[in-house]
Amino acid sequence: MLAVGIVTEVFGPHGEALPGFDFALCTDRPGPVPTDVGVPLTITHGLDKLAAADLVIALPWAGFRTPPASTVLDALSAAHERGSLVAAHCVGAFALAAAGLLDGRRATTHWRFAELLARRHPDVTVEPDALYIDEGRIITGAGAAAGFDLCLHLLRREYGAAMANAVARDVVLPSHRDGGQAQYLAAPVPEDCRDERLAEVLAWARENLHQPLPVAELARRAVMSKRSFARRFTAATGTTPHAWLRSLRLSGAEELLETTDLPVEEIARRVGYGSAAVLREQFVRRRGVPPRSYRRSFTSTP
Questions:
Q1: Is the per-residue pLDDT at 187 higher than 60?
Q2: What HEC string does 168-194 produce?
Q3: Averaged confidence pLDDT in the chain
Q4: By the number of CB atoms within 10 A of the CB, which of 27, 78, 273, 294 ranks highest?
């Protein structure tokens, strides 16, 4: 039920400010479908809906250890052959593997079942630490809340950072998380992640990206030592203050490159980089292309 909620929240309506998607839940046997919370879902669409879908996401199901019906596997394969993006959240990757769509590719799933996926499908290179893996028209994501990471990545990839950031703000989530599943295995988010002081500092940092924002200043605003702040920050966010700020700055730069004609030098200043050269170096390292090339991909006319 969590997976259904995630895809519905991301691809469902967000009001007039954001474009909507033609979103539908499908099953091989329309009608009441049991869920893990004891409340059945009534799903009216069958697999024929996949024939016109631009994106198909296989969601986790309790019986994933048994391959889906051949009709499901055939529908997934047909969607991929037709050119659709085919993705999987959590153990939904087992359906893609059973359909042969992951052979010769890298993939991920919930860390708890990564070994099982690798053992059953030796032609798949399973990476248990990844939050999601993009293999072009096949994308797999990790378990539970990592479904948001997968869906926001799809939005960012197909529609740009501005769209992903807007949806992320709407559902009150970071638009991008650094790191992988390993950071969550033995360290559940503690109660103090809801500490108002820390939340206020993070909100202040988002509004002041143009400043240097050294850890010492963030710690001072949180009324903590640098060591305590770094430890509290990592426990609450799953990453370090430096990595969090870098991700925030790059995401902000992406949005400005997509939605404004500001010079790269001004964008670098607004997101807290000392110069356009520093922004370019970080952009190429983390995004694979220089800022101007990234901008051209969103401003060129077909």
A1: no
A2: HHHCCCCCCCCCCHHHHCCCCCCHHHH
A3: 87
A4: 273
Q: What is the 3-state secondary structure (H, E, C) of 241-253?
A: HHHHHHHHHHHHH
Q: Which residues contact 91 (CB under 8 A, 6 or more apart)?
A: 60, 61, 64, 109, 110, 113, 143
Q: Which of 103, 87, 209 shows the shortest CA–CA distance to 149?
A: 87
Residue of higher predicted confidence among 194 and 18: 18
Instruction: Assess whether pLDDT exceeds 80 at residue 190.
Output: no
Q: What is the DSSP letter of 18?
A: S
- Three state DSSP letters for 225-284: CHHHHHHHHHHHHCCCHHHHHHHHHHHHHHHHHHHCCCCHHHHHHHCCCCCHHHHHHHHH
- Quick one: DSSP state of residue 101? T
Could you tell me which of 42, 237, 58 has the C-alpha nearest to residue 147?
A: 58
| Residue 190 contacts residue 45 (beta carbons within 8 Å) | no
Q: What is the pLDDT of residues 154-174, one digit of tens each?
A: 998 888 888 888 888 888 776
pLDDT > 90: percent of the chain: 61
> What distance in Å separates the CA atoms of residue 250 and residue 96, rounded to the nearest whole number?
32
**Spatial contact of 72 and 42, defined as CB atoms under 8 Å apart:** no
- Do you know the residue count of the chain? 302
Local structure of 126: helix, strand or coil: strand
Question: Rounded to whole angstroms, how far apart are CA atoms 41 and 233?
Answer: 38
